[in-house]
Amino acid sequence: MTLREFRQLHGLSLAEMAERLGVHSARTVQRYEAGERIPEPDVMRRIVMATGGAVTPNAFYQTPTPAAAPQPQHAAANDPAEAA
User: Fold this and answer.
1) Beta carbons of 8 and 54 less than 8 angstroms apart
2) Euclidean distance between CA atoms 39 and 63, whole angstroms
3) DSSP secondary structure string, 37-80?
4) How far apart are CA 70 and CA 19, in angstroms?
5) pLDDT the model gives residue 62
6) How far does CA 14 lie from the centroid of its chain?
7) Rounded distance between C-alpha atoms, residue 5 and residue 55, angstroms
8) What does the pLDDT profile of the chain (84 residues) look like in tens digits?
9) Do 76 and 82 form a contact (C-beta atoms < 8 A)?
10) pLDDT the model gives residue 73
11) Of 42, 50, 40, nearest to 18 (Cα)?
12) 34-69 b/e with 16+ CB inside 10 Å = b?
């Protein structure tokens, strides 16, 4: 779950979330949500605590999706001797 999803699910404003996390401003939370900033380790711990573990550090790191792997072809389909 992302920080934005958690905040919206619980009806919290950016300012309310900032207060719960003990960060400087609503804009800081907005930057975390937009992926413009990754929380420092101490803030990351507060996020996990404030969300009851619903938002974890993984939510702030996007892992690339691997491209579709090519499908293996059967040797018989490529070997004219096998096809006859």
Assistant:
1) no
2) 17
3) ----HHHHHHHHHHTTTSS-GGGG-PPPPPPPPPPPPPHHHH-H
4) 49
5) 75
6) 18
7) 9
8) 999 999 999 999 999 999 999 999 999 999 999 999 999 999 999 999 999 999 999 999 876 556 655 555 655 555 555 555
9) yes
10) 63
11) 50
12) eeeeebeeebbebbbebbeebbeeebbeeeeeeeee
Query: Could you say which DSSP state residue 24 is in?
Result: S
Predicted confidence at residue 63, as pLDDT, reads: 64
- Which amino acid, 21? L
> How much is the pLDDT for 61?
87
Give the pTM: 0.72
CB 23 within 8 A of CB 29: yes
Token look-up 């990351």 returns 44
